[in-house]
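HUMAN: Can I see a protein plus its fold?

ASSISTANT:
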Amino acid sequence: MRFKIVLLSVFAAVLALFEAMETRAFGGETSGPVRNRLITRNSAGPVHIGMIVAQARKAMPGVRFARTTDGEGMALIELKRGKTLEMILYAGEENAEKPINEKAKIEMISIFGPSYRTAEGVYPGMPLKEVEKVYGKLVRLTMSEIESREYAEFSHEPDGLSFRAGLPEIGVAGIYPEGSRETKSYEPSAVVTNVEISGR
C-alpha cells in the first residue's frame, strides 16, 4: 500500500514537472490546464478546419466566443481567454449582424495567441528576423490594396500557412518603394502578427 502511495506521488511530481516545462515553452501561462497549442496546416491546438463552431467551443473551455467583423464586413468569431485574443475564426457566415451559428463549419483560422507555435517554433509576435532563421530568407512582403494587410513569404515556409506581418505597436512592417506594394525590406521591429490557416 505504501509503495502505491509513493509511486503515485512520484507520478504526480513528474506530471507537474512536465506541465511546468510545457507552460514555460508556450508563453508562460499558468492558469488552467496545459493544452496543445501546435499550429498545423489544418489546426490551431484543438480547433480544426472543418469542425463546427459548437465543437470548437467544447474544445476550448474557458475561452469566450464572440461575434466580430473586419473592414470588409465579414462575419467572424473571436476567441478570447481573458483579455488575450487567441484566434479569429471564419465559418462561412454571411451576416455579421446575426448571432453566431453554432452549426457553421470552420473554414479559416487566424491565430494571434503568442503561446501557439508551429512545429518549428514560429509564433505570433515573433520578429521577422528571427523567423528568417527558421524558414529562410524573406522572399517578399506584400500589402493588399483594400485593407493594407501585409503578408510575409519565406523561402522555406511550410505549405498551408500564411504569415501576416506588422509592427508590435501597430504599423506598417515593410519599407516599400514609392508606388509599390511589394518589398524585401522591413522595419527592424517587424513581427508576425498572426498566422492564418485554411486547410488548403
